[in-house]
């Protein structure tokens, strides 16, 4: 093999054992797990807002953003539940995966991973809400199949162990738009799209029908300012139909400290290194508008 084995990395179980979180953090995580579950099952009528950088590129800027987000969350928590969107497994960032399993209350399987059986199986045993995005080609039935797999009991090999799961009833859909054969973006957040998804849910017999609408990616054509309009459009659809209101549990927004994105190597503080994001002032205004 043409690689040098530098050092053995600790297993997630070893790291969690050697650096356990405190009792207060355990209590807070359990509470947030329960709140997200209540929203997805309909016991809590608040809107779930999953918001944050396209990719977590540097600790100082991400923590700065999260502290600001926490302050705003204090003012809207009676109507919104804000979940920080922190993607680490990006082409130019370093992923940590299951090393943070004692902290995460929500995970999302991306458009390029949702067709991978291993991701579906692992989602079935996570114990927290798992959003399954529609694939980039747009076939909604693929996403529904992934939800079915994640909600079902599974038995498979994971990290050299034979494991069994009881299924994840909180696996649900995320609509993020799609790309056609010519590379053109198409949205799937409109009222008609939501009705079609609702009908698929009714036929499927899946538990806890729910969808999060991703306002960026191909829904916006990566025109990040369009996220504001798309969020308002989805909220209008919820207002028009009780059925749609019950199905749409939340929104996903790409947001950071500065508007837009930067090129590799520019090193700008708080500006996305991958997809363009809403800057902080626009983000804050959007959050207050959604709460209204």
Please outline the helices and strands.
Layout: H1 12-18, H2 23-41, E1 47-52, H3 59-76, E2 80-84, E3 106-109, H4 117-123, E4 129-133, H5 140-151, E5 154-158, E6 161-165, E7 171-175, E8 178-179, E9 185-186, H6 191-204, E10 211-214, H7 217-220, H8 226-240, H9 242-247, E11 248-254, H10 280-291
Parallel strand pairs: 1-2, 1-11, 3-4, 4-7, 7-10, 10-11
Antiparallel strand pairs: 5-6, 8-9
Helix pairs in contact: 3-10, 4-5, 5-6
Given helix and strand content, the structural type is: alpha/beta
Kindly, what is the distance between the CA atoms of the first and last residues, rounded to a whole number of angstroms? 59 Å
**Fraction of residues in helix:** 25-40%
CATH architecture: Alpha-Beta Barrel
| Number of continuous helical runs | 10
Main β-sheet, spatial strand arrangement: 2-1-11-10-7-4-3
Taking the sheet with the most strands, its summary is: 7 strands, parallel
Please report which band the strand proportion falls in: under 5%, 5-15%, 15-25%, 25-35%, 35-45% or over 45%.
15-25%
* Rg from alpha-carbon coordinates: 19 Å
CATH topology group: TIM Barrel
């Amino acid at each position: 093999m043409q690689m040098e084995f530098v050092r053995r990395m600790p297993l997630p179980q070893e790291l969690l054992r050697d650096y356990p979180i405190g009792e207060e953090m355990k209590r807070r995580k359990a509470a947030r797990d329960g709140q997200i579950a209540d929203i997805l099952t309909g016991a809590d009528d608040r809107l779930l807002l999953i918001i944050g950088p396209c990719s977590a590129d540097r600790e100082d800027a991400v923590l700065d953003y999260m502290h600001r987000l926490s302050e705003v969350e204090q003012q809207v928590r009676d109507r919104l539940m804000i979940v920080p969107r922190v993607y680490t497994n990006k082409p130019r960032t370093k992923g940590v995966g299951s090393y943070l399993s004692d902290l995460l209350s929500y995970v999302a399987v991306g458009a390029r991973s949702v067709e991978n059986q291993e991701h579906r199986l692992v989602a079935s045993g996570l114990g927290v809400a798992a959003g399954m995005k529609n694939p980039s080609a747009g076939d909604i039935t693929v996403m529904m199949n992934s939800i079915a797999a994640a909600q079902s009991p599974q038995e498979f090999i994971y990290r050299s162990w034979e494991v069994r799961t009881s299924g994840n009833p909180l696996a649900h859909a995320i609509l993020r738009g799609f790309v056609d054969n010519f590379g053109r973006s198409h949205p799937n957040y409109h009222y008609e799209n939501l009705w079609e998804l609702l009908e698929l849910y009714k036929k499927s017999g899946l538990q806890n029908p729910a969808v999060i609408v991703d306002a960026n990616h191909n829904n916006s054509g990566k025109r990040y300012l369009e996220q504001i309009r798309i969020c308002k459009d989805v909220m209008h659809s919820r207002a028009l139909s009780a059925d749609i209101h019950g199905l749409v549990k939340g929104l996903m927004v790409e947001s950071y400290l500065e508007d837009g994105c930067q090129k590799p190597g520019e090193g700008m503080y708080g500006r996305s290194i991958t997809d363009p994001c809403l800057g902080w002032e626009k983000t804050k205004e959007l959050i207050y508008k959604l709460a209204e």
